[in-house]
Amino acid sequence: MDAPLEPRAGTQVVARVGAVLRAVSAHAPAPISTSEVAAATRLTRPTAHRLLSALATEGFLDRDGAGWVTGPELYLMGSIAAERYDIAELAREHVRELARLTGESAFLSARRGDETVCLLREEGSFPIRSFVLHEGIRFPLGVASAGLAILAFLPQEERDEYLGRARLDGEWGASHSVSELVERLERTRAAGYSVNPGLLVEGSWGMGAAVFDERGRPAWALSLTGIESRFRDDRRRELGRALLQHAHALSQQLGRRGSP
């Protein structure tokens, strides 16, 4: 019989497996190489390869040429989890209507731990578009407009704890220092919606509004992205009202769905 893993070692393995699975899913539908997984997870290439191979043996991943893709076990588990967590069908009408009303690209993102992941995208009619967001892309809370909106409405203790350990300015630049993030979060709470003034890609702006689950916690966000000239002061107020209207309506729908 194999010796049981020490708690700390077991936790580390789980964290590494989770990081590998997220790296593969974030790259979907295209295959991702072992070297790319190692770079994304900050693991050595041999360690990444061992984990990828083990996950493939269990059906969580598949080989596709020289790369890795998600496997059938993830699909089966996802189908079961979707019964509890999937809000795509409820949210789709709101994402489409936001794109139609504003002409901008509209999105639904979900909180997953310390990150947001984009679940839905709908293109607006305006011919010049921002391609910062796409389905499957992940950002730390507080970076993109969706993550700003969600982080702003977490309980203060939880928000402060995250800001104390996230150190976003190391990867995302000085505009993501704790002091600047706190200011943006305060503005988000005052307005009800977040504004990302081209902090990810110069000239590409975003706005977001949190969507709350049946417990009143921010678990998703609706957002809009576009070029800077489309996000002037007067129009931001108009876009903010639209985001808040649809985020509130979706939160109410989710609340009714979660009621006994």
TrEMBL record:
GO molecular function: DNA binding; DNA-binding transcription factor activity
Pfam families: HTH_IclR (PF09339), IclR_C (PF01614)
Gene3D superfamilies (UniProt xref): 3.30.450.40, Winged helix-like DNA-binding domain superfamily/Winged helix DNA-binding domain
Keywords carried by this UniProt record: DNA-binding, Transcription, Transcription regulation
SMART domains per UniProt: HTH_ICLR
Domain HTH iclR-type positions: 11-72
IclR-ED domain ranges (all copies): 73-256
Family matches, as InterPro entries: GAF-like_dom_sf, HTH_MetabolicPath_Reg, Tscrpt_reg_IclR_C, Tscrpt_reg_IclR_N, WH-like_DNA-bd_sf, WH_DNA-bd_sf
Domain of life: Bacteria
Biological processes, Gene Ontology terms: negative regulation of DNA-templated transcription
PANTHER family per UniProt: HELIX-TURN-HELIX TRANSCRIPTIONAL REGULATOR, ICLR FAMILY, HTH-TYPE TRANSCRIPTIONAL REGULATOR RV1719
Protein name: IclR family transcriptional regulator
Species per Swiss-Prot/TrEMBL record: Microcella pacifica
